[in-house]
Design a protein that fits this description.
Helix content is about 40%, strand content about 15%. By secondary structure, the protein is an alpha/beta fold. α1 packs across α2 (about 30-40), α1 (about 5-15) packs parallel to α7 and α3 (about 50-65) crosses α17. About 55% of the residues are buried.
Amino acid sequence: MAKQNVAEQLVDILVRAGVRRLYGVVGDSLNPVVDAIRRTPDIDWIQVRHEEVAAFAAGAEAQITGRLTACAGSCGPGNLHLINGLYDAHRSMAPVLALASHIPSSEIGLGYFQETHPDRLFAECSHYSELISNPRQMPRILQTAIQHAVGQSGVSVVSLPGDIASEPAPDTALQTALVTSRPTVRPGDAEIDALVRMVDEADRVTLFCGSGTAGAHAEVMQFAERVKAPVGHALRGKEWIQYDNPFDVGMSGLLGYGAAYEATHECDLLILLGTDFPYNAFLPDDVKIVQVDVRPERLGRRSKLDLAVWGDVRETLSCLTPRVRAKSDRRFLDKMLKKHADALEGVVKAYTRKVEKHVPIHPEYVASVLDELSDDDAVFTVDTGMCNVWAARYITPNGRRRIIGSFSHGSMANALPQAIGAQFTDRRRQVISMSGDGGFSMLMGDFLTLVQYELPVKIVLFNNSSLGMVELEMLVSGLPSYGTTNHNPDFAAVARAAGAYGVRVEKPKQLAGALKDAFKHKGPALIDIVTDPNALSIPPKISREMVSGFALSASKIVLDGGVGRMLQMARSNLRNVPRP
């Protein structure tokens, strides 16, 4: 039996760690690893057209599956292209291992062709970034990298010179057990005791939830019922907490809607559950605040806390709920539910008014129809910018759908690459990329990856020929829009030329039929929808200072558009409010 080389040993360890795919672009320093994958049946090499796409795809796969995923880039410029997608994965707490292949080990530090120092370059967007300079290091460094990525929920980077990858592996390679899942974290008794006292002493409690409430929907609802608390959420908490929620008061932040802002500011006690909500201008400074988070470094970095609780949301609430006194006074909750419904009523007319005749098409209408026609377990990947707005306001979560975007890093062009990673996890599951024309055109080359692998991703392209969110930022700063207009081709024709299904929609009456036909198509499809670039409406009371750095008071609504089925939900929740 032929002796293993380092690349083959590396691939074997990745397989044992549960990695199913390695996304990347081949290159000479990476060739030994790619060849080892070619000869290993339990892992696939996924050829993309740009390494940034590889990192985004790996991050999306990790968010869908919860498993370790991997991407790779060749030496110098090749692995440098990974960095933006790795930043996004790291900030999204996605366990991703990046392999940065390197120049020949004897040339490191001598200004060799394509030389960079990846072990330094990736330090800021990873929990662990190390260079393998000797074959005997590889198993332990790779194991350590895997444990960092999985255990700390983020990125690890291993730099491997091509010549080291080709060398014989050591005879006595370590076969240690690998960490492939995270434990739950229970808070200490002292923190639980203190939190019980604070909840019992408060007359008005509000919960504000983030992505850390994943898997804790039932526990959040039970606690909210026990203490009669309105429940708001950040964008990353939407998919986990908005559905089946009779306590819902909407979302806070620039994209906020409803009464979440009022609920967080008019309470006696605000409990932040699994959220690293970045905009501290939306958080109150005159109420007691408790934060519960599994990442202790996040406790208190957005607001002054009266109590910091280190623990999983689910474990914390399981300990807390049985011990707090049940509250019977619903007045604060009912007041917030009514404010929420009234706020949604106030903006929904902008979406409903002559929407089926409006040309160019209202993007709100597109998102609403898309929500109605999509599968109950669809995965939506969402471009940064105005697509974030439409997803936040119109895509209805139900506990089975997923909504993935660059919500923490805020990168353009994330939706198509993330759709690639999401679709590889299950070709039978509907994956929809809500792309803006700016984001799509930035990494449009990897539309060819969909065609090459026959991935049935459906790209719903909101084509307003502009960078809409940037125009909004300029507008509220008192600047004329400049450099934001895109001169676009017929994207549907481009899709057809690439060998995919493509259709262009310019009138509202064409929309539903076009979406249905594209969804029925078995391969990749692009629906190029010409939308209104003037869909934004800024209320006159919004000042420049209020929106500087996205620090907008959420008691005002920046984007005057409809809110889809959320209004129906709010009306439904109002039925629980006792009539005088």
